[in-house]
Amino acid sequence: MKIKAFAFAMTAAAVLTATAGGPKYVFLFVGDGMSTPQRMVADEFSRKSGKGPLAMNSLTYQAVTRTCSANSLITDSAAASTAMACGEKTYNGAIGVDAERKPVYSCAAAAHEAGRKVGIITTVTLTHATPAGFYAHRANRGEMYGIAIDLVNSGFEFFAGGGLDSKYKDKKAPEFSKYGHAYRYAESQGYKIVRTKEEFMALKPADGKVLTRFTDGALENAIDANPDQPTLAEIVAKGIEMLDGPQGFFIMAEGGRIDWAGHANDAATNLREVLALDDAVKVALAFLDRHPAETLVVVTGDHETGGMSMGFAGTGYALYMERLAGQTMSVGRFEHQVGKLYGKRTDVSFDEVKPIIEKAFGLKFEGDGKRDPMVVSRAELDEIKAAFDHDAEFHKAKIEENKAYDGARRYLLGGACRTVVSHKAGIGWSSGAHTAMPVITSAKGFGAELFCGFIENTDIARKIKLLYSK
User: Fold this and answer.
1) Which terminus of the chain has a lower count of CB atoms within 10 Å, N or C?
2) Both ends of the chain: CA-CA distance in Å?
């Protein structure tokens, strides 16, 4: 271990010889649930769409990154975020504390102590595990109220994305009423609460510290774009505008819904979340081009989600990413639309649902399957129809019209349709959960040479902290 530490220090010293004081600007992008397959599927889709390769895949240095937590080969986002942010392995579920539940401090806090302004950005809730690892110290990621208070007490200047998670109430804080108290506390500490996209886009540096509340949950999926919410790229651009100054800044930006689409095994939604993250990376790279000697851009993932594979038996040695282009909404949005039909009556027919499936997933129920690959086969039709029949009975059970129901207690139609689409594209899934697959960490700019080879996720924080210590 001493030899490794000495070698690491010598490498860092060589990198930093030319410039003292560390990078003025650091961007750390985290794709939650994003490993090699997610990046390559999105890359291939982007190429087939005529937009070229992903920007994140073009960064100068690449490192294979091990993601295990202190108590499991398969990490959760809390332990992974703590490792990436603070440089310490911890148990699954821990936020900003080590395996002994002692607070550990993040590279974002190190940046703040070094005089940089700090921005924390995510497409999910700001108190979710990944962003929380950069500012909070809690033994359990479910302590949402405490995490929200830690957010405010961090003093970081810019929090933007989804709202504070309001699903949990802390029994130790009875004054916390659903959403309100944490926001009121933030206002009392000088944060400007921003509720609309129009208000957000009009922000100026003179407005001071910012906390967004576009929603009390996550932002919409990129595939379900909501014009009333800013994109991740727009949030990063505004973060740069708000934080730039003589001392520089540190920005952590998370593509959080990559993970959620991975859990759902929803390939088309997943790749569009990766593309949205890549658009934000492009904003940072444009900034790096203007400040090449002072800026570091790092892109990584906290873990892989879904066991995504690029290859499926039905397509042989071929991938057809273009077949994902016809999907126009997430599985969740599709299920909501079908649910509205069931909300009106229980005798919904399969023929009524077919047009919704065609619009949502790009599948076709009529035509020549030999000429058009999006026409469903007999076996695919049987799979989709069986899921529809199940959902019809499940809905009747929920409203007590079928009290004898003993099937799966969830809707299956959206899952069946996205599975058919994935397989037509050549994408397989082995899990609905996280896997132990390593991720890729990519870097460009000041100190990027440190991010190469085979590293631990803890090395990300340690290397950034080392840069700030110079």
Assistant:
1) N
2) 22
Give the separation between CA 304 and CA 37, rounded to whole angstroms: 9
Q: Do 402 and 442 belong together in one domain?
A: no
> Do 209 and 335 reside in the same domain of the chain?
no
Residue 18: pLDDT over 70: no
Measure the CA–CA gap between 191 and 148, rounded to whole angstroms: 13
Q: Beta 304-305 vs 453-456: how paired, if at all?
A: unpaired
Name, in order, each residue with C-beta under 8 angstroms of 464's C-beta and a sequence gap of 6 or more. 26, 28, 107, 110, 111, 296, 298
- Whether residue 315 is contained in a domain is answered as no
What CATH number does the domain containing 185 carry? 3.40.720.10
How does residue 261 score in pLDDT terms, banded at 50, 70 and 90?
A: very high
Mean pLDDT over 35-45 rounds to 97
Residues ≥6 apart with Cβ < 8 Å to 285: 55, 297, 444
Do 261 and 337 lie in a common domain?
A: no
290 within a domain of the structure (yes/no): yes
Report pLDDT digits (tens) over 301-320: 999 999 999 988 778 888 99
Q: Determine the length of the chain.
A: 470
